[in-house]
UniProtKB/TrEMBL annotation:
It is an enzyme of class 5 (isomerase). Its EC number is 5.1.3.15. It catalyses: alpha-D-glucose 6-phosphate = beta-D-glucose 6-phosphate. This is Glucose-6-phosphate 1-epimerase. Substrate binds at residues 66, 89, 94. InterPro entries: Aldose_1/G6P_1-epimerase, G6P_1-epimerase, Gal_mutarotase_sf_dom, GH-type_carb-bd.
Amino acid sequence: MVVTMTSWLWERMPVGEHKAAGASAEILYYGATVISWKAGSSTNPQPTERLFVSGKAALDGSKPVRGGIPVVFPAFGAPTHPDHAKLSQHGFARNNVWAFGATVMDNEAGVSVKLTLAPNDAIKAQFDHPFELEYVVTLAEHQLTTGLHVKHTGLSTTAPFEFQALFHNYIRAPANDVRISPLAGVSYYDKTEATEEARAAPKLEARAGVDVNKFTDSVYEDAGGRYDVVWPSGAIEVRATNLKDVVVWNPQQEAGSKIGDMEAGGWEKYVCVEPGYVRGFVKIEPGQAWSGQQVLSVKV
Ligand SMILES: O=P(O)(O)OC[C@H]1O[C@@H](O)[C@H](O)[C@@H](O)[C@@H]1O
């Protein structure tokens, strides 16, 4: 098992090696973006790439990676909080260079590394709050776990701050054959609707298995925290803690062909299932911390 940290300058630094299993992960310092996760399942031990990265993705730190697992913080989508007005779509975590924190674990059970991000001048110009982020990525034989830890590092007299957070998983799967469940009975907001009014009106999910056969951009609220992503030859389970919502996104040709760094037909090769806290905001007081975590498990 190998976790490789890759800097935005393309230097590669292996930080842990575990020979018992063939799983591997690769993380860019830029955005702390996991750009590869190879793992087998108990029925098919052959390590297989589980994430989609567009062939046209920039991997040189010039823009967020179109694929893998970008980290969305402190705003999801176009900012809606008055305090986030200067942020760009999905915030700054995915387009800043993180620092190596530590190898948290390297043993038979797996490999775990920590990256950190503290405010730099560019971040302070957009979001002037005292914080520290830690991102822990843990690789086990059939599992990848990512955890984001947000700390308010200000003195007790400092104002609290509010944020959203999300793991933007591009799960490699045949998009037109994939189903996501259980989401029946969950309310969602449909971002593909044409008007602001329609986008703000909740819909109720009726499908036992949600498909993305047409352009889909749905924000499920209080979605339950466990999602099965299943297709004829594979299955991945996504389990989330402290991330109450989940976004299901696939642009299909309609929107995908307009994305500059999307390879031709790329939308057929993945589905984004993104656990997050994106309806409303997490608020933390000075000295407080918040953590959100996901576990991706290869089932088939
Ligand atoms: O192009 P970006 O900024 O990486 O965003 C991709 C998509 O990310 C999803 O999470 C959003 O719900 C979509 O609205 C958005 O289009």
